[in-house]
Amino acid sequence: xxxxxxxxxxxxxxxxxxxxxxxxxxxxxxxxxxxxxxxxxxxxxxxxxxxxxxxxxxxxxxxxxxxxxxxxxxxxxxxxxxxxxxxxxxxxxxxxxxxxxxxxxxxxxxxxxxxxxxxxxxxxxxxxxxxxxxxxxxxxxxxxxxxxxxxxxxxxxxxxxxxxxxxxxxxxxxxxxxxxxxxxxxxxxxxxxxxxxxxxxxxxxxxxxxxxxxxxxxxxxxxxxxxxxxxxxxxx
Length: 236
Description:
Elements: E1 3-7, H1 14-17, H2 21-26, E2 30-34, H3 45-53, E3 63-68, H4 71-81, E4 86-90, H5 101-106, H6 115-120, E5 126-128, E6 133-136, H7 138-144, H8 150-160, E7 164-165, H9 166-170, E8 183-188, H10 196-205, E9 209-213, H11 219-222, H12 224-233
């Protein structure tokens, strides 16, 4: 059986990944949900990778790295360091040389003109969370939800999301990409944050096989049982 090491994205937390833990364990697999130091304003991509290295089993031969969204940067680092390690990208940003995740998202760095300008570039969806940090504007996201789902949406966001250090979002990628081992990309076909066509292009950039799930960006919360099935299939 495999050990799934699951890495959350920007503003995320292990709680966001939790819905897939039960289905994976019921299928006989071990699961580790990594707690990245995203709330640390000064944390770097290397700090993120160190958080994963700290929880890897002594023998990583059966590890499957799973990265969601910005977690794609971190799992790429770990998989590149461990030849033959399997990696699954879930609606994830696959790094490109010399580019930050902000560059991939916007095409340029909105924070270059200052923190306030960078936050404004997100169209009101994030707000300042103190110097060097930003947070999802939960009130705005709840207001955009279907009225019947607003209470559940607020509860979910307050439980799973937290502030994010800006430094890591701005950091340029200068590492290696995984060149061996099984590489799978789970495309979230109803995603409005990372467009499905962009996901498919990123999958191709690392030679990943593509599978699809009919969810928005939060596949772990929207369809955990189906996502778990896709993760298990990635080990075969």
